[in-house]
Design a protein that fits this description.
Elements (H helix, E strand, L loop, with lengths): L3 H10 L5 H13 L3 H8 L9 H15 L6 H9 L1
């Protein structure tokens, strides 16, 4: 049976170009234990056609983004705390 020490050794021995793949794999193993995250990861893809209203909302959001009319999450938190 592998120990955390064994895993650390394996990670230390990995080539640099495999580090990201190993990290993603370990994150998935960890995240499978979270039932909410597991449900989101395993949810079927939304296959309903996009409505005209949704297309218009996306176009407006993209226009706002391109024009710089955005608020960061940090700015929202600052406002809520202020």
């Amino acid at each position: 049976m592998a120990t955390k020490e064994d895993l650390h050794k394996l990670i230390d021995d990995l080539p640099e170009d495999e580090i990201q793949a190993a990290a993603r794999y370990l994150q998935r193993l960890r995240d499978r234990r979270d039932p909410v995250l597991a449900a989101l990861l395993n949810a079927p893809e939304d296959d309903e056609p996009e409505t005209d209203h949704e297309r218009q909302a996306v176009a407006e959001a993209m226009a706002d983004l391109e024009a710089g009319r955005v608020v960061t999450s940090d700015e929202i938190l600052d406002e809520l705390e202020g």
